[in-house]
Amino acid sequence: MKKLAFILGAAALLPQVALAHVGDHGGSPFMSGVMHPVGGADHVLAMVAVGLWAAVTGGRALLALPLAFVGAMLAGGALGAMGVGLPGVEPMILASIVLLGVLAALAWRAPLALGVAIVAAFGLFHGHAHGTEGPASGLLIYAAGFALATMALHLAGLGLGLALNALSARGVTRAFGAGTAIAGLALAFA
Predict the structure, then answer these.
(1) What is the pLDDT of residue 136?
(2) Residue 137 burial by Cβ neighbours in a 10 Å radius (0-12, 13-18, 19+)
(3) Which of 46, 93, 99, 154 could make a disulfide contact with 66, Cβ separation 3.0–4.6 Å?
(4) Surface-to-core class of residue 133, CB atoms within 10 Å of its CB (0-12 exposed, 13-18 middle, 19+ buried)
Protein backbone atom coordinates (compact mmCIF):
# COMPACT_ATOMS: atom_id res chain seq x y z
CA MET A 1 0.00 0.00 0.00
CA LYS A 2 2.84 2.41 0.86
CA LYS A 3 4.58 1.79 -2.46
CA LEU A 4 1.34 2.30 -4.38
CA ALA A 5 0.63 5.57 -2.56
CA PHE A 6 4.14 6.83 -3.31
CA ILE A 7 3.93 5.87 -6.99
CA LEU A 8 0.51 7.49 -7.41
CA GLY A 9 1.66 10.65 -5.63
CA ALA A 10 4.81 10.91 -7.73
CA ALA A 11 2.90 10.28 -10.95
CA ALA A 12 0.37 12.96 -10.09
CA LEU A 13 3.17 15.51 -9.75
CA LEU A 14 4.94 14.76 -13.02
CA PRO A 15 2.86 17.18 -15.12
CA GLN A 16 3.74 19.93 -12.66
CA VAL A 17 7.44 19.60 -13.45
CA ALA A 18 6.79 20.51 -17.06
CA LEU A 19 4.75 23.58 -16.06
CA ALA A 20 7.19 25.07 -13.57
CA HIS A 21 7.02 28.86 -13.83
CA VAL A 22 6.53 29.14 -17.57
CA GLY A 23 5.01 32.24 -19.14
CA ASP A 24 1.95 34.26 -18.14
CA HIS A 25 -0.10 32.54 -15.45
CA GLY A 26 -3.55 33.56 -16.58
CA GLY A 27 -3.76 37.22 -17.61
CA SER A 28 -5.38 38.85 -14.57
CA PRO A 29 -3.27 39.57 -11.50
CA PHE A 30 -5.52 37.31 -9.38
CA MET A 31 -5.26 34.33 -11.76
CA SER A 32 -1.55 34.94 -12.14
CA GLY A 33 -1.26 34.78 -8.35
CA VAL A 34 -3.36 31.61 -8.15
CA MET A 35 -1.39 29.88 -10.89
CA HIS A 36 2.09 30.71 -9.63
CA PRO A 37 2.15 28.27 -6.68
CA VAL A 38 0.30 25.50 -8.53
CA GLY A 39 2.35 25.93 -11.69
CA GLY A 40 5.59 24.51 -10.34
CA ALA A 41 6.44 21.28 -8.56
CA ASP A 42 8.75 23.14 -6.17
CA HIS A 43 5.91 25.14 -4.63
CA VAL A 44 3.31 22.35 -4.82
CA LEU A 45 5.52 19.83 -3.04
CA ALA A 46 6.53 22.19 -0.22
CA MET A 47 3.04 23.52 0.36
CA VAL A 48 1.42 20.08 0.43
CA ALA A 49 4.21 18.94 2.79
CA VAL A 50 3.25 21.71 5.24
CA GLY A 51 -0.24 20.20 5.37
CA LEU A 52 1.09 16.66 5.74
CA TRP A 53 3.39 17.69 8.58
CA ALA A 54 0.53 19.52 10.29
CA ALA A 55 -1.64 16.40 9.95
CA VAL A 56 0.89 14.06 11.52
CA THR A 57 1.65 16.61 14.25
CA GLY A 58 -1.97 17.38 15.15
CA GLY A 59 -3.25 19.72 17.81
CA ARG A 60 -2.65 23.44 17.39
CA ALA A 61 -0.21 22.73 14.54
CA LEU A 62 -3.19 21.91 12.30
CA LEU A 63 -3.84 25.63 11.90
CA ALA A 64 -0.62 27.21 13.11
CA LEU A 65 1.73 25.68 10.53
CA PRO A 66 -0.29 26.57 7.41
CA LEU A 67 -1.13 30.04 8.72
CA ALA A 68 2.49 30.75 9.63
CA PHE A 69 3.63 29.73 6.16
CA VAL A 70 1.03 31.93 4.42
CA GLY A 71 1.69 34.92 6.68
CA ALA A 72 5.44 34.76 6.12
CA MET A 73 4.90 34.11 2.42
CA LEU A 74 2.91 37.33 2.13
CA ALA A 75 5.72 39.22 3.89
CA GLY A 76 8.28 37.64 1.56
CA GLY A 77 6.10 38.52 -1.42
CA ALA A 78 6.07 42.15 -0.34
CA LEU A 79 9.86 42.13 0.00
CA GLY A 80 10.27 40.59 -3.45
CA ALA A 81 7.83 43.03 -5.05
CA MET A 82 9.75 45.95 -3.49
CA GLY A 83 13.02 44.63 -4.88
CA VAL A 84 14.50 43.73 -1.49
CA GLY A 85 16.84 40.83 -2.11
CA LEU A 86 17.09 37.64 -0.10
CA PRO A 87 20.13 35.41 -0.54
CA GLY A 88 19.62 31.85 -1.76
CA VAL A 89 15.91 31.97 -2.58
CA GLU A 90 15.88 28.99 -4.95
CA PRO A 91 18.14 26.79 -2.78
CA MET A 92 15.92 27.56 0.22
CA ILE A 93 12.80 26.63 -1.75
CA LEU A 94 14.40 23.31 -2.69
CA ALA A 95 15.56 22.80 0.92
CA SER A 96 12.00 23.42 2.09
CA ILE A 97 10.71 20.52 0.00
CA VAL A 98 13.29 18.13 1.39
CA LEU A 99 13.11 19.23 5.02
CA LEU A 100 9.33 19.52 5.22
CA GLY A 101 9.01 16.12 3.55
CA VAL A 102 11.44 14.60 6.05
CA LEU A 103 9.60 16.20 8.99
CA ALA A 104 6.31 14.74 7.75
CA ALA A 105 7.94 11.35 7.10
CA LEU A 106 9.38 11.27 10.61
CA ALA A 107 6.10 12.59 12.07
CA TRP A 108 8.30 14.88 14.14
CA ARG A 109 6.27 16.71 16.76
CA ALA A 110 8.32 19.84 17.15
CA PRO A 111 7.46 22.34 19.85
CA LEU A 112 4.83 24.56 18.23
CA ALA A 113 7.03 27.68 18.25
CA LEU A 114 9.84 25.82 16.49
CA GLY A 115 7.49 24.30 13.91
CA VAL A 116 5.99 27.71 13.21
CA ALA A 117 9.47 29.23 12.87
CA ILE A 118 10.54 26.53 10.40
CA VAL A 119 7.53 26.89 8.11
CA ALA A 120 7.59 30.69 8.41
CA ALA A 121 11.23 30.80 7.31
CA PHE A 122 10.45 28.68 4.27
CA GLY A 123 7.27 30.63 3.58
CA LEU A 124 9.31 33.85 3.46
CA PHE A 125 11.47 32.45 0.65
CA HIS A 126 8.54 31.03 -1.32
CA GLY A 127 6.80 34.39 -1.02
CA HIS A 128 9.89 36.24 -2.16
CA ALA A 129 9.91 34.15 -5.33
CA HIS A 130 6.24 34.95 -5.91
CA GLY A 131 6.81 38.66 -5.30
CA THR A 132 9.79 39.00 -7.63
CA GLU A 133 8.00 37.12 -10.41
CA GLY A 134 4.70 38.98 -9.99
CA PRO A 135 3.06 41.56 -12.21
CA ALA A 136 4.03 45.21 -12.17
CA SER A 137 0.50 46.26 -11.19
CA GLY A 138 -2.29 44.70 -9.17
CA LEU A 139 0.09 43.38 -6.52
CA LEU A 140 -2.51 43.09 -3.75
CA ILE A 141 -4.83 41.11 -6.01
CA TYR A 142 -1.90 38.96 -7.13
CA ALA A 143 -0.95 38.35 -3.47
CA ALA A 144 -4.53 37.36 -2.66
CA GLY A 145 -4.35 34.83 -5.48
CA PHE A 146 -1.12 33.20 -4.39
CA ALA A 147 -2.22 33.20 -0.74
CA LEU A 148 -5.48 31.47 -1.65
CA ALA A 149 -3.75 28.88 -3.83
CA THR A 150 -1.15 28.22 -1.15
CA MET A 151 -3.81 27.70 1.50
CA ALA A 152 -5.61 25.31 -0.85
CA LEU A 153 -2.39 23.29 -1.28
CA HIS A 154 -1.87 23.26 2.50
CA LEU A 155 -5.45 22.08 2.94
CA ALA A 156 -4.93 19.34 0.33
CA GLY A 157 -1.96 17.98 2.28
CA LEU A 158 -3.77 18.41 5.56
CA GLY A 159 -6.94 16.75 4.28
CA LEU A 160 -5.00 13.84 2.79
CA GLY A 161 -3.02 13.37 6.00
CA LEU A 162 -6.06 13.57 8.26
CA ALA A 163 -8.06 11.20 6.07
CA LEU A 164 -5.25 8.65 6.06
CA ASN A 165 -4.79 9.06 9.82
CA ALA A 166 -8.52 8.42 10.32
CA LEU A 167 -8.16 5.20 8.30
CA SER A 168 -5.29 4.14 10.56
CA ALA A 169 -2.96 4.62 7.59
CA ARG A 170 -0.64 7.12 9.23
CA GLY A 171 2.27 5.25 7.68
CA VAL A 172 0.96 6.18 4.24
CA THR A 173 0.91 9.84 5.26
CA ARG A 174 4.51 9.45 6.36
CA ALA A 175 5.32 7.71 3.05
CA PHE A 176 3.93 10.73 1.19
CA GLY A 177 6.27 12.89 3.28
CA ALA A 178 9.21 10.67 2.33
CA GLY A 179 8.18 10.81 -1.32
CA THR A 180 8.09 14.59 -1.10
CA ALA A 181 11.63 14.69 0.30
CA ILE A 182 12.85 12.38 -2.47
CA ALA A 183 11.12 14.50 -5.11
CA GLY A 184 12.79 17.59 -3.61
CA LEU A 185 16.19 15.94 -3.91
CA ALA A 186 15.41 15.01 -7.50
CA LEU A 187 14.53 18.64 -8.29
CA ALA A 188 17.69 19.85 -6.55
CA PHE A 189 19.90 17.63 -8.65
CA ALA A 190 17.97 17.97 -11.92
Answers:
(1) 84
(2) exposed
(3) 154
(4) middle
pLDDT given for residue 58 in this prediction: 95
What Cα–Cα distance (Å) separates residue 58 from each residue in 4, 52, 119, 171, 186? 25, 10, 15, 15, 29
Residue 130: is it exposed, middle or buried by C-beta count within 10 angstroms (0-12/13-18/19+)? Answer: buried
Q: How far is it, in rounded angstroms, from Cα 156 to Cα 143?
A: 20
Is there a contact between 146 and 38 (Cβ–Cβ < 8 Å)?
no
Domain positions in the chain: 34-188
pLDDT digits (tens, 9 = 90+) for 52-70: 999 999 999 999 999 999 9
C-alpha triplet 54, 114, 35: angle, nearest 5°: 50
Mean pLDDT of 11-25: 42
Phi, psi of 27 (to 5 degrees): 90, -70
Mean pLDDT to the nearest integer, 144-162:
97
